[in-house]
């Protein structure tokens, strides 16, 4: 009898946990921006001074939300993808370093001018989606002007939704394609994006990215 | 920075968009197809998603009223095939049924059969590029229980769906038919029996040698539907389905009362053929704009019966009540089957947004129900029927109670050849609601409904000049000399019989107004008052008024508790109650009618009040509470009562119902789910009545025809319990599901009476008692299912289950039929519902395609 109870207890307890970071109940990300400044020498080489990247393939980090930045950095550590150039950059950083770096870039102003191209197709997709193709509008989570979640500030989880306006177009194209193709699925927000991007084709991604890059912050 | 407070909710809804905009009108060609092997249509066995209900917010595990959401299902991991993604699996296996596996109750709506089964085939195809999709589902668990379901379309554009469904309804497993031709419209007596010439012993001998057979009606339904968006605001839909029903079920067969005439007459339980179909059509056009919504729809239904009538033979000889005379040798009985009929309805509705967050909705519809089936002749005999007093076998003035079949067995004996009946319906419904402030919601409505009967039928035989219809296939006239069931101004001027169909024209006007007052942020008090006026022709009351007041209270001020309470007061009254508004239906209203000696008998006792029209006061109350016990458990409790007092000295006097239910839900994780349910309901019905001891004209209670000593009372007590418990748990690779269910219903009808005059029959065996009770009626079914599922590989998994079910049935209506199906001149084909103990074991292999 004892054996049966022990086995049953073991089986009940043996629930497999999902390999995913759940951001729905995540805490606010705090950091020391000044301490972070001391750690960003390598970062700005690619992402530009103050996080204002000029190379289209590298995302702008300036004025991005700290929660999102921290989770992105932690994601590179967690995934340790040998094909990613970021893996080597973050592998020796402590969790505190990641928070401080996030706080630093979040505090920097986005100074680069917006690009001038802005197609109507991207604006329509962002604001209205495309019900016929099962694509929801982006503005629900990223704000009417792509500035971040409309409820940011009311709960920590909304700080993990990135601002998209004035982001680098090529970077957005690459990132959306990763979500669409299921290559990023290790956080609850990534799973939201996986469903959202699932029905985006290359042309739709391109038009969205171009329009967002042209949107001023 | 601009903010959108509802943005997360908006996104949640939009994430569901691919499903919601599948161009589905919601009208549906048919409901979701499933079967008894898996009533959830595949949902129950699917693995749960531990990640919860929403990526947007944590802990979304309860509805606004505090009930636990079921853990969502793990979405299928789609496989790639070019532009398409797909997911599919097939479940095949073997079922073994044993015990009382032929029992009708156990087989109802399933017809379990040992053998190979296709549990479920499911294939889903998706093309993300344009939102195209296709779905196929199929199952076959017995010879008459299978479905196939297919749909394809493009999200937000169109949807086409089609299905086939076969569903058996096993109505009896112990039928013994003394007729050949069961399922056809021609029942002929088995060899060894002589139509109109067999004795009770002959019939009993044949019946006792027959094996039990199963009776069932199989429904085969086919459907096709198209839904399409014309643009983002206009959509159209059209659905058609046809259901065919094939089989037979127990029915009647009248050759006059055997109870009154022992050794005579014939009361037969025949087997009616079911061989009909219904075609249903739905089509509509919808508009959904920011301010206006419109809906224009057509609904049609067309019933067709392959047979117009069915015939059966009676084995028994008839004997006249007059000594020395002889009954005509009639034995052929018949019934008209349900007439072919058509139904059309056109409906239009307009809804417009109003200021103050209000809405106004107007609906108008008009419909027509019609039937024009060819009518069957009043009797189906050859030669003569009636009583041969002259001994010649020839009807005529010297043999006045013998009648020629030729005068009645032809459609020429009818006043018209087809029914030509129609009912027109009309409806207008207007409703509005406004919210002048955040604390108030005001609403009101007006509704008008009308049914107009067009045309009536007069039962008149132009060949004989008789009005009315031959009773009991001519048996009554062949036992009681001269009692044919018809009226004739020359030959039977005092006969009282029904000669006309009854039109029941009716119109109902309803007005209601109400308000909901938000007392606090999560507390609402509501009040609704309603007045309903129903006017009708040819009923005991020309007008019935129903007034009601309803109070409602909803409180969610405590996070862990939701309380809902409703109380209704309903008062029914109306115009003067007239006991007999049906005079015009009877021969007594025809010119030339001669009142019989002693006068025209009262139609019924004056004090009778039919329960749908009598004065009535009703109090109705229900209370529902839901307690959230931590994050994983909820407890719901309900209490309800409904008390009806009728202003009737004769008729229904009181009908009360009370009940409670308790439900405990436990969901500690996606891997574990448990629940326990208990429900109890009881009903009490009090009826008072009086027997007529003489066919006199005095309808007064306590008078000579309805004397006080003939009064009787019945008290019916019903009690119903239901309980259930379920547990599902994932032990890693092993999944256990267990379900126990109980249904237990008891009914006891007791009676009392002033004197044996109250009884129609059976004055014997009373032993002086003036009260008693019929034997207990009981229906109890216990069911336990335990199943285990475990994966064999990434594509194969196995499910083993056992379903044990035990039914305990007591129904005194069928007492004695185990010993004999033939009692005097009464033949019972169906042995009635039987207790059973049955078991079903299944082994099912699930293969991912």
Give an account of the 3D structure.
The complex is a heterodimer of chains A (217) and B (849). Chain A is mostly helical and 217 residues long. Chain A has two domains: 33-106, Cytochrome c-like domain (Cytochrome Bc1 Complex, Chain D, domain 2); 120-214, Cytochrome Bc1 Complex, Chain D, domain 2, CATH 1.10.760. Chain A has eleven helices and no strands. Chain A has helices at residues 2-13, 33-37, 41-47, 66-79, 85-90, 95-106, 120-128, 139-142, 169-180, 188-197, 202-214. Chain A is globular, with a radius of gyration of 19 Å. Chain B is mostly beta strands and 849 residues long. Among the domains of chain B are: 82-155, no CATH class; 523-581 and 595-790 and 802-840, no CATH class. In chain B, the strands form five sheets. Chain B has a 26-stranded antiparallel barrel. Chain B is globular, with a radius of gyration of 32 Å. The two termini of chain B are 51 Å apart. Chain A binds chain B through residues 11-12, 14-18, 20, 22, 24-25, 129, 131-134, 136-137, 139-141, 143-145, 147, 149-151, 157, 188-189, 191-192, 195-196, 198-199, 201, and chain B through 1-5, 7-8, 10-11, 14-15, 17-18, 21, 50-52, 54-59, 128-131, 154-157, 232, 669, 671-672, 729-732, 734.
Any chance you could write out the topology, listing elements then pairs?
The complex is a heterodimer of chains A (217) and B (849).
Chain A: H1 2-13, H2 33-37, H3 41-47, H4 66-79, H5 85-90, H6 95-106, H7 120-128, H8 139-142, H9 169-180, H10 188-197, H11 202-214
Helix pairs in contact in A: 4-6, 7-11, 9-10, 9-11
Chain B: H1 7-15, H2 17-20, E1 79-81, E2 84-99, H3 104-107, E3 115-127, E4 132-142, E5 145-154, E6 158-175, E7 179-180, E8 186-189, H4 200-208, E9 213-229, E10 234-250, E11 254-255, E12 266-268, E13 271-288, E14 292-305, E15 309-313, E16 326-327, E17 332-336, E18 341-354, E19 358-371, E20 384-388, E21 402-404, E22 421-437, E23 440-454, E24 460-461, E25 466-468, H5 475-479, E26 486-487, E27 506-520, E28 523-536, E29 543-555, E30 561-574, E31 608-609, E32 616-629, E33 633-646, E34 650-669, E35 672-690, E36 711-731, E37 734-753, E38 771-773, E39 777-791, E40 796-810, E41 822-823, E42 826-827, E43 836-848
Parallel strand pairs in B: 8-15, 12-42, 31-34
Antiparallel strand pairs in B: 1-2, 2-3, 2-43, 3-4, 4-5, 5-6, 6-9, 7-8, 9-10, 10-13, 11-12, 13-14, 14-18, 15-17, 16-20, 18-19, 19-22, 20-21, 22-23, 23-27, 24-25, 25-26, 27-28, 28-29, 29-30, 30-32, 32-33, 33-34, 34-35, 35-36, 36-37, 37-38, 37-39, 39-40, 40-43, 41-42
């Amino acid at each position: 009898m004892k054996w049966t109870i022990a086995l049953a207890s073991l089986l009940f307890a043996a629930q497999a946990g999902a390999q995913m970071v759940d951001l729905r109940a995540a805490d606010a990300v705090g950091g020391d921006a000044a301490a972070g400044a001391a750690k960003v020498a390598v970062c700005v080489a690619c992402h530009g001074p103050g996080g204002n990247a000029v190379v289209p393939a590298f995302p702008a980090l300036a004025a991005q939300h700290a929660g999102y930045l921290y989770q992105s950095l932690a994601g590179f550590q967690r995934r340790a993808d040998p094909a990613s150039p970021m893996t080597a950059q973050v592998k020796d950083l402590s969790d505190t370093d990641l928070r401080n770096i996030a706080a630093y870039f979040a505090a920097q102003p986005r100074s680069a001018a917006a690009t001038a191209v802005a197609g109507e197709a991207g604006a329509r997709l962002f604001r209205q989606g495309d019900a016929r193709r099962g694509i929801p509008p982006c503005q629900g989570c990223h704000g009417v002007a792509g500035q971040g979640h409309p409820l940011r500030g009311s709960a920590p989880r909304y700080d993990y939704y990135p601002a998209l306006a004035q982001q680098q177009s090529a970077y957005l194209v690459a990132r959306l394609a990763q979500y669409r193709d299921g290559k990023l699925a290790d956080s609850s927000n990534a799973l939201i994006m996986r469903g959202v991007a699932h029905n985006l084709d290359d042309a739709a991604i391109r038009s969205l990215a171009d329009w967002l890059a042209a949107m001023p912050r | 920075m601009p903010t959108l407070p509802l943005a997360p909710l908006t996104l949640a809804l939009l994430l569901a968009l691919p499903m919601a905009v599948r161009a589905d009108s919601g009208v549906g060609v048919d409901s979701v197809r499933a079967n008894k092997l898996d009533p959830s249509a595949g949902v129950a066995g699917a693995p749960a998603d531990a990640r919860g209900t929403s990526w947007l917010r944590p802990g979304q595990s309860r509805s606004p009223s505090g009930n636990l959401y079921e853990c969502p299902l793990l979405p299928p991991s789609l496989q790639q095939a070019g532009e398409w993604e797909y997911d599919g699996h097939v479940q095949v296996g073997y079922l073994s049924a044993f015990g009382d596996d032929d029992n009708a109750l156990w087989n109802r709506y399933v017809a379990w059969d040992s053998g190979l089964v296709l549990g479920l085939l499911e294939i889903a195809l998706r093309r993300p590029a344009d939102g195209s999709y296709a779905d196929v589902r199929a199952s076959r668990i017995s010879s008459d229980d299978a479905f196939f379901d297919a749909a394809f379309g493009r999200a937000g554009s169109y949807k086409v769906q089609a299905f086939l469904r076969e569903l058996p309804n096993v109505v009896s497993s112990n039928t013994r038919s003394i007729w050949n031709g069961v399922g056809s419209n021609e029942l002929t007596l088995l060899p060894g029996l002589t139509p109109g010439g067999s004795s009770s012993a002959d019939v009993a001998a044949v019946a006792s040698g027959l094996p039990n057979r199963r009776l069932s009606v199989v429904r085969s339904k086919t459907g096709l539907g198209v839904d399409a968006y014309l643009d983002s605001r206009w959509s159209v839909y059209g659905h058609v389905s046809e259901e065919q029903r094939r089989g037979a079920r127990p029915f009647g067969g009248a050759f006059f009362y055997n109870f009154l005439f022992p050794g005579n007459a014939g009361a037969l339980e025949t087997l009616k053929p079911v061989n009909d179909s219904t075609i249903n059509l739905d089509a509509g056009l919808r508009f959904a704009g920011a301010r206006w919504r419109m809906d224009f729809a057509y609904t049609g239904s067309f019933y067709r019966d392959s047979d117009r009538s069915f015939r059966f033979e009676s084995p028994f000889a008839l004997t006249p009540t007059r000594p020395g005379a002889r009954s005509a040798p009639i034995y052929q009985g018949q019934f008209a089957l349900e007439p072919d009929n058509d139904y059309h309805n056109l409906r239009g509705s307009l809804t417009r947004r109003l200021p103050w967050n209000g809405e106004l909705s107007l609906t108008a519809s008009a419909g027509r129900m019609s039937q024009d089936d060819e009518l069957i002749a009043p009797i189906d005999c050859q030669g003569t029927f009636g009583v041969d007093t002259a001994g010649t076998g020839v009807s005529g003035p010297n043999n006045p109670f013998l009648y020629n079949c030729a005068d009645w067995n032809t459609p020429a004996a009818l006043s018209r050849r087809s029914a030509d009946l129609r009912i027109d319906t009309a409806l207008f419904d207007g409703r509005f609601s406004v919210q002048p402030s955040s604390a108030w919601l005001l609403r009101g409505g007006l509704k008008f409904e009308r049914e107009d009967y067009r045309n009536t039928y007069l039962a008149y035989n132009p060949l004989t000049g008789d009005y009315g219809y031959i009773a009991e296939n001519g048996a009554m006239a062949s036992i009681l000399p001269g009692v044919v069931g018809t009226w004739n101004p020359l030959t039977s001027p005092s006969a009282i019989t029904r000669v006309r169909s009854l039109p029941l024209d009716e119109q109902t006007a309803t007005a209601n107004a109400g308000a909901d007052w938000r007392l606090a942020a999560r507390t609402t008090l509501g009040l609704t008052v309603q007045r309903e006026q129903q006017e009708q022709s040819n009923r005991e009351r020309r007008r019935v008024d129903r007034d009601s007041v309803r109070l409602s209270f909803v409180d969610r001020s405590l996070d862990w508790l939701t309380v809902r309470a409703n109380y209704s007061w309903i008062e029914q009254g109306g115009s003067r109650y007239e006991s007999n508004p049906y005079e015009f239906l009877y021969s007594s209203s025809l010119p030339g009618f001669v009142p019989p000696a002693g006068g025209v008998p009262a139609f019924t006792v004056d004090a009778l009040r039919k329960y749908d029209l009598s004065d009535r006061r009703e109090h109705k109350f229900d209370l529902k509470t839901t307690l959230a016990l931590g994050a994983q458990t909820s407890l719901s409790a309900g209490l309800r009562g409904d008390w009806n007092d009728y202003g009737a000295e004769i008729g229904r006097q009181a009908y009360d119902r009370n009940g409670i239910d308790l439900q405990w839900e436990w969901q500690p994780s996606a891997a574990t789910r448990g629940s326990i349910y208990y429900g109890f309901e009881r009903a009490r019905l009090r009826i008072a009545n009086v027997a007529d001891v003489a066919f006199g004209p005095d309808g007064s209670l306590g008078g000579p025809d309805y004397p006080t000593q003939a009064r009787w009372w019945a008290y019916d007590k019903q009690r119903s319990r239901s309980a259930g418990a379920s547990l599902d748990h994932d032990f890693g690779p092993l999944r256990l599901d267990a379900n126990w269910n109980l249904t237990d219903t008891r009914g006891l009808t007791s009676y009392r009476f002033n004197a044996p005059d109250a009884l129609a029959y059976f004055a014997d065996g009373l032993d002086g008692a003036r009260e008693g009770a019929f034997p207990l009626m009981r229906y109890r079914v216990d069911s336990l299912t335990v199943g285990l599922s475990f994966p064999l590989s990434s594509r194969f998994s196995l499910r083993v289950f056992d379903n044990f079910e035990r039914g305990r049935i007591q129904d005194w209506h069928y007492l004695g039929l185990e010993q004999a199906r033939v009692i005097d001149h009464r033949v019972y084909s169906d042995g009635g519902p039987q207790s059973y103990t049955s078991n079903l074991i299944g082994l099912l292999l699930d293969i991912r395609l």
